[in-house]
Amino acid sequence: MCEHDETVESLQDVLLRNGFVRCDIAACNCGSWHPRYGLQERWNEVRDALTEAGYLGNYNGNLVLNGVRELIQKCGERSEDIEKLLETLADIATSKDMTLAIAQSKARRIYVVMRERYAHFGEGER
Fold first, then answer.
1. What is the C-alpha to C-alpha distance for residues 113 and 101, in angstroms, rounded to an integer?
2. Which residues are CB-contacts of 85 (< 8 A; sequence separation ≥ 6)?
3. In sequence order, which residues have a C-beta less than 8 Å from that of residue 35 and are 6 or more positions away?
4. pTM higher than 0.85, yes or no?
5. Which residue among 3, 5, 34, 91 has the highest number of C-beta atoms inside a 10 angstrom radius?
6. Ramachandran region, residue 38 (left: φ > 0; alpha: ψ -120 to 50; beta: rest)
7. Distance of CA 54 to the CA centre of its chain
8. Each residue of 33-62: pLDDT tens digit?
């Protein structure tokens, strides 16, 4: 391999590492390099948002996929808790044997548990 080929490969590597791709638009056929229009920037936004929300760190290898999996799991747990809350509230609303005081007491307990469990949701803490 001659020195010229090594230089070309080295420069192509620099372009690829910095988010450029060779033009593959058939109508254009310019043979030049084009930026990927913010792909890396969008990816960094996702990574930063997961980090700020506490879903990305050394504990999960700083892998975006692991952070997204954890976020989905947490949302699923919250969804299950919300379903339980709605079922309890429906029982309160339809029970003929329950006094207003008992219904308010149950609702208050549910509220306190949910508030404590999700006090840090969306505040960057796990």
1. 18
2. 110, 114
3. 19, 20
4. no
5. 34
6. left
7. 10
8. 887 766 677 788 888 988 888 888 888 888
